[in-house]
Write a structure and sequence with these properties.
This protein is an alpha+beta fold and 161 residues long. It has 3 helices and 7 strands, in the order E-E-E-E-H-E-E-E-H-H. Strands 4-1-6-5 form a 4-stranded mixed sheet, with helices on both faces. The longest helix has 15 residues. The protein is globular.
């Protein structure tokens, strides 16, 4: 007898993820606090559901799941920054990945929204939200790669992107 086909996610997280910096034209940045790690403030992040999922689809799905924001809403602009970080997965979270996986590739996106507004958090993932000017947001980010992504905002605007 063959094993049944599972219509669900693979048992391990795919080590390919997105980081989406949600911001306003004035560069106020949305940060959300992880429910499982108090004080861990971050932008929207999340792994691909499967290796072939397009990066932009992953970004749109994660933004909707974690904040309730639809990237296709009027006035919203999702931009693939075409930048990737490769980083070591925190040892405490490696159990979520296949045995031997120690690094993740993270693709960066920006989502410009017309103005700061309350969002609908996924309570199992996040417990608090705040909009901060970009420099304050970068200082509050737990992850160095997330802080660097927030700092990219001003450089991208100065460069016309």
């Amino acid at each position: 007898m063959s094993e049944p086909v599972r219509p669900f996610k693979v048992p391990y997280k795919v080590p390919l993820s997105v980081l989406v910096v949600i911001h306003t034209p004035a560069l106020d940045v949305l940060l959300i606090e992880r429910a499982d790690v108090p004080g861990f403030w971050q932008s929207v992040t999340g792994a691909k559901d499967h290796p072939d999922e397009p990066w932009a689809a992953t970004a749109a799905r994660e933004v909707l799941e974690e904040t309730g924001i639809d990237v296709q809403a009027p006035g919203h602009v999702l931009t693939d920054w075409a930048l990737e970080n490769v980083y070591e997965i925190y040892p405490g979270w490696r159990h979520r990945y296949a045995p031997g996986v120690t690094h993740n590739t993270e693709r960066l996106f920006g989502l410009c929204v017309p103005q700061a507004r309350p969002v609908t958090l996924s309570p199992r993932e996040h417990c608090n939200q705040v909009w901060l000017p970009w420099t304050e947001a970068a200082d509050r980010c737990y992850s160095p790669s997330n802080a660097e992504a927030v700092l990219q905002l001003a450089r991208r605007r100065a460069a016309g992107g």
